[in-house]
Amino acid sequence: MPLPLAWLDGRLLPLAEARISPLDRGFLFGDGAYEVVPVYGGRAYRFDAHLQRLDRSLAEMRMAPPLGRAEWLAIFGKLVHGNGGGDLLLYAQVTRGVEAERFHVPQPATRPTVFACVQKLPVVPAAAIEQGVAAVSAEDIRWSRCDIKSTSLLGNVLMRWLAADAGAAETLLLRGGHMTEASASSAHVVLGGRLVTPPQTNAILPGTTRGVILELAAREGIVSERRSVTEAEMRSADELLIASAGGGIRAVTTLDGLPVGSGAPGPVYRALYAAFKATQREFSTELPA
Ligand SMILES: Cc1ncc(COP(=O)(O)O)c(C=O)c1O
Q1: Among the three residues 120, 141, 173, which one is the final residue of a domain in this structure?
Q2: Do the domain assignments include residue 224?
């Protein structure tokens, strides 16, 4: 649940008082981009990577960044400290804004809507770390610009719902016989001790936690490869990992009801998870009061 203080169009205000017009293009067309930034001990994790990705998503939508890094940093600081700090998940949403008339093609002078709020960081249960999580698989029905972190999330919603129907944590997605990612996480396999992650194309989001995993793998001496992963490789992998800002790094230990590898979190997961926990402070940025 979001915490009480939010940011909307230039000011901090009680979330209960935040109002956005129904003519906002974010509402009418899903014409917006967003970021989800973990906050550990009041510090923003991978701040630069998230802001870079937001600016990139906006540029791909032909929008200029509405705010600079220093302005975002100040807003994040106000939101995080104003809501009591600690471990949080910060949502920053930018839409193309409100227009008086409904046209697909945006008007040039429309002012973007900028909204941000925080919620408590969901705690990953100890069982999910020790035993891993269940996932299901499905054909990736989403559009072909999944590299944009768009607020148009209908495809992801429908995909995640399949996991919920099966009592699983995630839905792993397949396009043309290859693993893309999961409904709200990046996806990786371990084959013969090597970490294999699909290449960065328009079919997947440039995951910030994926970047973390690759960096930590290099530090831990785990060989990594960026290449396509076939469905057969996904199903016969020694380990299957999912990663996201909100869920951290998790081992998938059953896929469509069948065990993955040994059916327990493997050595690559355990090494990456330990390194992930150990570097949280190093990889995060202090926020101004
Ligand atoms: C579709 C999709 N892919 C990948 C990710 C992982 O990205 P990140 O690690 O930056 O959270 C997410 C995160 O929400 C996502 O929604």
Answers
A1: 120
A2: yes
CA of 186 to the centre of ligand 1 (A): 6
Model confidence pLDDT, tens digit, residues 162-213 = 999 999 999 999 999 999 999 999 999 999 999 999 999 999 999 999 999 9
Ligand 1 centroid–CA 204 distance in Å is 9
Supply the range of the domain harboring residue 70.
Answer: 5-120
Ligand 1, atom 1, lies closest to the CA of: 184
Q: Is the CB of 184 under 6 A from ligand 1?
A: yes
Establish if 287 belongs to a structural domain. no
Task: Tell me the pLDDT tens digit for each residue of 88-133.
Answer: 999 999 999 999 999 999 999 999 999 999 999 999 999 999 999 9
Are residues 11 and 92 located together in one domain of the fold? yes
DSSP per-residue codes, the chain: -B-SEEEETTEEEEGGG----TTBHHHHH--EEEEEEEEETTEEETHHHHHHHHHHHHHHTT---SS-HHHHHHHHHHHHHHTT-SSEEEEEEEE--B-SS--SSPPTTPPPEEEEEEEEPPPPPHHHHHH-EEEEEEE--S-S-TTS-BS--HHHHHHHHHHHHTT-SEEEEEETTEEEEETTBEEEEEETTEEEE---STTS---HHHHHHHHHHHHHT--EEE---BHHHHHH-SEEEEEETTTEEEEEEEETTEE-TTSS--HHHHHHHHHHHHTTTTTEEE---
Q: How confident is the model at residue 235 (pLDDT cuts 50, 70, 90)?
A: very high
Q: Is the CB of 209 under 6 A from ligand 1?
A: yes
Q: Look up 149 and say whether it is catalytic.
A: yes
Please work out whether the CB of residue 244 comes within 6 Å of at least one atom of ligand 1: yes
Q: What is the CATH number of the domain that holds 61?
A: 3.30.470.10
Q: Is the pTM for the entire model greater than 0.85?
A: yes
Distance 207 CA to ligand 1 centre (A): 5
Residues 9 and 37 in one domain: yes
